[in-house]
Amino acid sequence: MRRVFVIGTGLTKIGEHWDKSLRDLLTEAILMAVDDASIALNDIEAVYVGNMSSGYLQSQEHLGSLVATWLGIPGIAACKVEAACASGGASFHQAYLAVASGLYDCVVASGVEKMTDAITSDVTSALIMADDQEYVAYIGATFVGLNALVYRHYMEKYNVKQEKIAAFSVHCHKYAKYNPYAQFRKEVTLEDVMSSPMIADPIHLLEAAPIGDGAAAIVLCSEDFVSKLKLNREVEVLASTMATDAFSLYDREDITTLKATRIAAEKAYKIAKISPEDINVLEVHDAFSILGVIHLEDLGFAKKGEGWKLVEEGELEVDGKIPTNLFGGLKARGHPIGATGIYQIVEVTWQLQGKAGKCQVDNAEIGLAQSVGGVGGTVVINILKRVG
Amino acid sequence: MMVVESVPRYWRERKYRYRLIGSECKKCGKRYYPPRRVCLNCGSRELVEVKLVETGKVVSYTVIRVPPKEFQGLTPYVIALIELDDGTRLLSQLTDVAPEEVSTGMKVVATFRRVKEQSRDGIIEYGIKFKPI
C-alpha cells in the first residue's frame, strides 16, 4: 500500500439552501477543494460521491457521471458510494483505497445530501431506509425511534440520568458558534434541550441532528503526485477502516454497544500503530446525544456506561483530554447525511493544519473521524496525522 | 411522496408476518426473526422454519411522535424491542395500551392486526403486533 495525503478541502455551509440544487452544492464543494489543493481539474482521475437518499428525495441517481460532467471532466472514473449515514466516511475510504492501491494518483472524496426540499414525513421515510424495510420499517419504526430504544436501554442498564447524556448536545452547540459552516451557530442550555419537544421518547428534538443540505470534498493523492507538483504534504491518512455489525437491533445481544465501531477502531489503531491516548482531536457521529456518549466508550476513551462522564468533566473541551466535535458535531454543525463523514475529515484536517480558528487544539498532531451508518450497521474510521 | 408500493413484495412475506414464523439453527439452536439461511451465531447453513412462541417481554420501547406518512393516523404509537420466551428478539408495535402505561419488562402477547394501507391500490397490509398480557 502507498502513502496517501490530503491536500485540499472544500465545503458549503450546512442549512436550508432553497436556491441551490444537489449538483450546485456538490460542484461548489469540489471546486473549492480543487482550488485549495492548487491543482487543476484535469489532474483528477476519480471522484467518489457519498450520498444516501438522492434517489428518494431528489429522484436523481447516477451521481458519478453527473458530477464528472458538471466539473467539466467527463471521462474520469466516478460513482456514488452508499452506506446510509456512513456514506461520507465510506466515500473517503474508497478514495483512500484507490490511491493506496496505486491505481490512481489524485482523486476526490466527496459527499452531498439535499434534504430540505422534502417535508419531514418524507425525510423520516428516507432515513429509515437505513434499516430493515420488511420487518422494522414495516411496523412503523422510525430511525429516531430505533435510537430511542438504544437510549432507554442504556439509561436503565447503566443507571444514568438523561440529563447526563443530553449534555452532549449542549457541548456541541457551544463549539458550533465558532464554525461559519455550521447549521446552528448558537448555544443551548441543558434546560433548552430537556424542554424541547419529544420526537421519539426519550429523544428530544434538541438531542437529534437536524435536517439540512450540504456538500463537502477532499482531494487525496499519492506521494509521487505531491512531489511532481511540489505540493505541501502536510496531512497523511494513517489508517482508513470499515466494519459492519448485524444490520438491525433485533440481532444484537447488547444494543448499547456498536460492535462495528470496536472492530473498525481496533483495526485502525493497529494499522496506524497508535492507541486512543495518542489522539489529539476527535470527531464522532453524534446523530443523537446518546450515540455521542456510546461512541466515546466504543472508541476506547471511557468504560461502558461511563462515556457521559467525559462530557461532565470537561474532557471533550478544546483543552480537555480528548477534544471532541469542536466544529459542532452532527447536532449543531449539522448532518447532511452522505456529506457528514467528509465534513468530519475536513474538520480534523483543519485542526492538523492549525486552521481551526477559535477551536484550535494546541499542537494537534493526530485526529480521528468516525462515520456511522444506520444504528451502527456500518462504521468507518479514518485516522489522519500532521506530517509537515 | 411514497415508497414504491408492490403487491408481490407484500404477498411473499405473508407467512412470516401473519404467523410469526422464524428460523432455528439445527446446530446451535439459535432462533431468528425474520428467518434467514445462515446462522449469525455459529455460521451453520442448516436452518429450518419454526413457529416462534407468541409471548415475551419488552426489552426497550419508544413512543413515535414524528412518523412516516403512512402511520400518521396512529400517532403517538409505541414501538418495542421484544424478547420472546424462546429467546428470539424482534421489533414490533404495541397495541391495546396507552403509551404511558408501557414499561420495560412488561409481558406481551402477539396479536394479528391491520398494519397499514397502500395508498395507490388500497391494499390493506396485515401483520403481528403485541399487546399486554
Overview of the structural elements:
The complex is a heterodimer of chains A (388) and B (133). By secondary structure, chain A is α/β, with parallel strands linked by helices. Chain A has two domains: 4-118 and 211-236, Peroxisomal Thiolase, Chain A, domain 1 (3-Layer(aba) Sandwich), CATH 3.40.47.10; 140-209 and 237-383, 3-Layer(aba) Sandwich (Peroxisomal Thiolase, Chain A, domain 1), CATH 3.40.47.10. Chain A contains 14 helices and eleven strands. Chain A has helices spanning 22-37, 54-58, 63-70, 87-100, 120-127, 143-158, 162-176, 190-195, 223-228, 259-272, 289-298, 307-312, 329-333, 337-353, and strands at residues 4-11, 46-50, 77-81, 106-113, 198-200, 203-204, 214-222, 235-244, 281-283, 366-373, 378-386. Chain A has a nine-stranded mixed beta sheet, sandwiched between helices. A two-stranded antiparallel sheet of chain A has the order 5-6. The longest helix of chain A has 17 residues, at 337-353. Chain B is mainly β and 133 residues long. Chain B has one domain (7-132). Chain B contains two helices and eight strands, in the order H-H-E-E-E-E-E-E-E-E. In chain B, strands 6-5-4-7-8 form a five-stranded antiparallel beta sheet. In chain B, strands 2-1-3 form a three-stranded antiparallel beta sheet. The interface between A and B is large, with 40 and 39 residues.
Main attributes?
heterodimer, A: 388 residues, alpha/beta, Peroxisomal Thiolase, Chain A, domain 1, 2 domains, nine-stranded mixed beta sheet, 38% helix, globular, B: 133 residues, mainly beta, 2 helices, 8 strands, 8% helix
